[in-house]
Amino acid sequence: MIGDLAKLIDKFDNDRIKGLTDFEQVQIFNALKDLEMYQKTGTISEFMELKCIREAQAKRKRG
User: Which residues contact 20 (CB under 8 A, 6 or more apart)?
Assistant: First the structure.
């Protein structure tokens, strides 16, 4: 399953998906990345903590 998820993430990251807007494609990509992170952590609390850290880092990066 994890290998299939990685392939799907790669497809959404590198290919333009016909019938989706850029916004929709980004939203799906982000959801897939969240699912991947959740699978790696295994618990909702760890996932939420990492997600908050990731969002804070992205916010700082944007300025």
Answer: 28
